[in-house]
Amino acid sequence: MAPDPDLPPPLGDGTPVDALPPQTASEGTASEGTASEGTASEGTASEGTASIRARFADAVLSDDARPSVRRLVESLLATVELLARSDTDLIDLKIADAALTEMTQAFEIFRPYRGIRKVAIFGSARTGPGDHAYRQARALAQRVARSGWMVVTGAGPGIMAAGMEGAGTDRSLGVNIRLPFEQEPNQFIAQDPKLVSMRYFFTRKLMLIKETDAYVLLPGGFGTLDEGFELLTLLQTGKATPAPVVLLDAPGQGYWRSWRAFADNELVANALISPDDLALARITDSVDEATAELVGFYRNYQACRWVGDLLVIRMLVAPDRSELADLNRRFADLVTTGTIHPTRPLPPERSGHDHLDQPRLALRLDPTRFSRLRLLVDAINECTGGPGPAVGA
User: Fold this and answer.
1) Which residues face 215 on adjacent strands?
2) What does the pLDDT average to over 148-152?
3) Has residue 246 got a pLDDT over 90?
4) pTM for this one?
5) Which residue, 382, 380, 367, 376, is CA-closest to 279?
6) CA spacing 20 to 30 A to 228: which of 13, 120, 122, 145?
7) Would you give the DSSP letter of residue 266?
8) Where are the alpha helices (H) located in the chain, listed in sequence order?
9) For residue range 333-368, what is the model confidence (pLDDT) as tens digits?
10) Cα–Cα distance for residue pair 71/209, rounded to 1 Å
11) What values do phi and psi take at 359, rounded to 5?
C-alpha cells in the first residue's frame, strides 16, 4: 500500500514513512484511509469511545489540520485506551509514558532547527581533552559548523564535549542519557535550552539518528559500537535514508582500520554481509576528508522518498543524457523493472509542496540493494549537467 502523501511522522527507528520502501511503509504507521496493522485502530479499541477520541481531536487540533494528522491523533488515543483496557502491568505503563514524554520533549527542541543540516558525533565519554581523538572531534565540529551545519551529540563528556566545544553552544544540540556515572551534561551544553535528558537509550538513539543528516563515529566502547552497528543496519536495510557515515581515527591510530579488518576477514569472508555493505561508511584520519565527505554528500543529492513503488530522488542539478545513460549502465542491478528515469513531482509531492523546483530521478529499487543505493548517490553527486542539455521529465 502506498504511504499517505501527507504523513510526515517517523517510525520507531527514526525513518520518515515516505522514506521506506512500499513493502514496509505500512509497518507501525497509519496509511492512507486506515490505521496500520502495527497500531491500535478503532477496531481494536472500544467502538463506543471513537466519538470521544474524535471530540478530543477537535479540541486540540486546528481547523485546518490535515486528515492524516487527525487520524494519527485518534490512533494515539486508541492506543492509550488499549493499554488501559488490557490490564497492562504498571512497569509497562511507566515505560510507555516515559518514552512518549521523552520523544515529545525532544521533538519540541529539534523542531525549530529541522531546516538546518546536522551531524551526529559519537565516541567515548572517557576520552580526555589531551587525547588526539578529542582534538579530531573538536576540529571536525568546528569545520562543519563553519559550513552552516549544527552538531548533535549525547551531551556528555569526552568526544561528546569535544563536538560541542568545536561547534559552539549556539550550533549544538544535546540528547543526554541519565546514568549513575559518566553522563552529566558537559559544560558546553548544560543549562542550554537545546538540551534534552532521557532515561532510555532507545529513545535517545532514535533522536540522535532521526534528527540528523550525517554521522561521525570516533573510537569508543560498547555504546559507540552499538550506535555504529545499529546505524549501519538501518542504512543496509533501507530503514534509514542514505546518509554519509565517517569513521574517524586519530592520525597514526588504527581503531577503525582494525574494525574494517574484522569486517573483511569475518563478516565479508563468511558471507555475513556483502562487500557493498562496507561502502556505507568511510574510514579516514583526516578532518579535511571527513568534512568533505559529510558536506559533499549533499552537493547535488538532496533527499529521497517513496511514492507508491517508485523511489524518487531529488537533486539540485539533473544529469544530462550522457550522464543518465551512464547511471543506467552502472546501476542497472538496482532496478527491478524499467530504468532510472527523470520525473516531474508526483501528486503526493505536489500536495506536500515538497521542493517542487528541484529535478528528480525515479526508479523501482530492488529492496535488497540499499548499500548500492549509497553508491548511486555518490554517482549522482558527480553529475554536473554536462555540456549538453539536462534531461527533462
Assistant:
1) 120, 245
2) 98
3) yes
4) 0.84
5) 376
6) 145
7) I
8) 50-60, 67-85, 90-110, 132-146, 159-167, 201-210, 222-236, 255-262, 287-296, 321-330, 347-351, 370-382
9) 999 999 999 999 999 999 888 999 999 999 999 999
10) 26
11) -70, 160
Q: Which letter does DSSP use for residue 12 in this model?
A: T
Q: Which of 215, 221, 198 is nearest to 137 (CA)?
A: 215
Give tens-digit pLDDT for 367-390: 999 999 999 999 999 999 965 445
Q: What is the dihedral of CA 85, 86, 87, 88, to 10 degrees?
A: -110
pLDDT tens-digit series, residues 115-132: 999 999 999 999 999 999
> Which has the higher per-residue pLDDT, 39 or 323?
323
Confidence check: pLDDT of 8 > 70: no
Quote the cell numbers at residue 172: 549544538
In the structure grid, which three cell numbers stand for residue 132, read together? 588526539
Residue 196's region, left for phi above 0, alpha for psi from -120 to 50, else beta, is beta
Looking at the DSSP bridge assignments, the partners of residue 194 are none
Please give the pLDDT value at position 386.
63
Contacts of 57 (CB under 8 A, 6+ apart): 70, 73, 74, 77
Greatest alpha-carbon span in the chain = 68
Coarse DSSP helix, strand, coil percentages of the chain, rounded to the nearest 5 percent: 45, 15, 40
Over residues 272-281, mean pLDDT: 96
Contact 272, 348 (CB under 8 A): no
Residue 198, beta-bridge partner list = 177
Rounded to whole angstroms, the Cα distance separating 191 from 119 reads 21
- Topology of the domain comprising 115-296: Rossmann fold (3.40.50)
Residue 197: its H or E element: strand 195-198
Alpha-carbon distance 220 to 283, whole Å? Answer: 15
CA dist., res. 301 & res. 317, Å (int): 8
Report d(CA 250, CA 192) in Å as an integer: 30
Beta strands 301-307 and 195-198: pairing type?
Answer: unpaired
Mean pLDDT of 148-156: 96
